[in-house]
Design a protein that fits this description.
Oligomer: single chain
Distance between the termini: 59 Å
Structural class: alpha+beta
Shape: elongated
Largest sheet: 6 strands, antiparallel
Number of strands: 11
Order of helices and strands: EEHEEEEEEEEEHHHHHHHHHH
Strand content: 15-25%
Number of helices: 11
CATH superfamily of the largest domain: Regulatory protein AraC
């Protein structure tokens, strides 16, 4: 995205009054309660809002604030200055200003931005620092799930607008995890909705998941995603840290655990469902990867069985 040296902008803030705007600012007392609540204090919201067509919107903070600031532009444009660099925000892009960072931001005079924004903090927030201080553009297509993300924003706003009961605050902050995941893990966010994913590794994993009752070879999987065996194995390991066949075995064993846990199936029946004609071989594979035999595992999760 576009970066350039700072330009002259007014140093005074503008009154935030935009037709159709929504915003919630939690009080100091409410934040103290959130920070003492182990259910939500790892990742929490302090402020959240929506400013449509926010002409003259301007903020300057000489010391930053205690929480990180996420600004998600859905229309128009604006600029964010961090240190001596200005970043331009355009439709369907976002930027996160880290806590305590000196900054200012403003809406374009010609094309005022419409933005969803939130301030968030908590010990878990530091694990997302790789996404801070840079413009991230989200590809717009029929699989982008933009409306779903906006629905999450509005759901949090509605929960807090309904009153600051403990239930509403807990619900809103627990929804924050899903909202941030929609920004930080975009391909997975789209994949779980069933959209086609052009990533070859993800395509291969979906293919594996659909064929857990078979014994696939690397050649078969690579052929499905139209790659050579060597190139496919390399990119698969680079992304997952595992070989394709080890990954496939682990998917089978995840399904085995699900079947043993949630269904009253015999070990032999689970083995057959996963393509193992020899239950004893299945038991050896299960024991090697899980650390206990299927029979011992079943007794562990259901002592009365």
């Amino acid at each position: 995205m576009k970066e350039h040296k700072i330009s002259t902008k007014p140093e005074l803030g503008k009154k935030d009054s935009f037709y159709g705007d929504r915003s919630i600012v939690l009080s100091k007392k409410q934040l103290e309660s959130i920070k003492s609540n182990p259910l939500i204090n790892g990742l929490y919201i302090s402020d959240i809002g929506f400013y449509p067509n926010a002409k003259n919107h301007f903020r300057r903070r000489k010391k930053g604030i205690n929480e990180h600031i996420l600004i998600y532009c859905i229309d128009g444009s604006g600029s964010i200055q961090v240190s001596d660099t200005i970043f331009e925000l355009k439709p369907n892009s976002f930027f996160i200003i880290r806590a305590h960072e000196i900054h200012k931001y403003w809406s374009s005079d010609d094309f005022p931005w419409s933005i969803y924004w939130l301030h968030f903090g908590g010990k878990k927030s530091r694990y997302f620092e790789i996404f801070f201080d840079k413009v991230i553009q989200i590809e717009q297509s029929n699989r982008s799930r933009i409306d779903d993300r906006l629905s999450l924003f509005n759901e949090i706003l509605t929960a807090l607008e309904s009153g600051f009961s403990a239930e509403n605050i807990n619900y809103a902050n627990m929804c924050l995890n899903s909202l941030l995941a929609s920004f930080f893990y975009i391909e997975t966010y789209r994949l779980v909705k069933g959209y086609h994913n052009p990533n070859k590794v993800d395509q291969a994993i979906i293919y594996m998941q659909k064929n857990l009752n078979k014994f696939l070879t690397i050649k078969e999987i690579a052929s499905h995603v139209e790659l050579s065996e060597s190139h496919f194995s390399k990119i698969f390991r680079n992304k997952t840290g595992s070989s394709p066949l080890d990954y496939f075995i682990n998917l089978k064993l995840q399904e085995a655990i699900r079947l043993l846990t949630n269904q009253s199936l015999k070990i032999k029946e689970v083995a057959f469902k996963l393509g193992y004609s020899d239950p004893y071989y299945f038991t050896r594979i299960f024991s090697k990867h899980i650390g206990s035999s299927p029979g011992t595992f079943v007794k562990t999760i259901n002592p009365q069985s």
